[in-house]
Every structure is written in structure tokens, then in C-alpha cells.
Amino acid sequence: MSDERTRASYNSGKRLRILVVEDHSDTLQALSRLLSHFGHEISVADGAEKALKIIDSKEFDAVLCDIALPDGSGYEVITQAKRRRSLKAVALTGFGATEDIERGKKAGFDFHLTKPVDFHELRARCVVITRELRE
What we know:
Layout: H1 3-10, E1 17-21, H2 25-37, E2 41-45, H3 48-57, E3 62-66, E4 68-69, E5 72-73, H4 74-84, E6 88-93, H5 98-107, E7 111-114, H6 119-134
Parallel strand pairs: 1-2, 1-3, 3-6, 6-7
Antiparallel strand pairs: 4-5
């Protein structure tokens, strides 16, 4: 299947503006490339402080955020981000216990994906976000 056809099959019909917050550079690069391949506009941050600065400077439909960041927590990033603007939040984390998911919901995460991230599940969350934004 050609790149163009593959991209078209993954594209959910709306180009999402997504901020990916992840401190592991290889994971950040892989997620950024994959989401770009799905047709989305991607910005990246490798820490909490940088993420909040970017959120203040650009509009986003969604933030995909690691929980354990070197200069803060993803919980705080999402709590602050949602105070500043309306957006969807997806936790990308190694923490997958029920308590972790509940803590994420309290912080403002709409979805919780456990690492290693299943790319089909990630794409499915993007489709759901697109649908919710249309409503």
C-alpha cells in the first residue's frame, strides 16, 4: 500500500492539532512521526514547563502527555492546560493500575493509554476526539 493510500486510510477526516509531551526522545519522535503520518499537525515538548509555554502560545485540539516528566507531572500539565483552554487529554504512561486511571481522570485526562502504546488504540482515540469535536 502506498504512503498516500495508507495515510488516507488512517486519516479520520479532520486534522487534529496535537501537542505530544514526552521526555523519552525516541518515544517522542516515534509518536510525532506516527501522528503526522495519520495526518495530524504535531507540536512536541519534552517536559512540563515547555508544554505549558507551548499551550499558552498555540491552539490545540488534544494533548498526549506522559505522566512522569523530569520537571513535573503530566497530571499538573493537564490540570493547568484545561484551566487555560478547552482540549482533550490523553495520558501516555507506564502506570496502568485502576488508581492511576482514576487519578488521571481527576486531573482532567479524557483517555488513558498504557505504554507501550498500541498504535491502533492511539489512532482510535484520535478518531473519538475528532468525532467529539464535531459535536
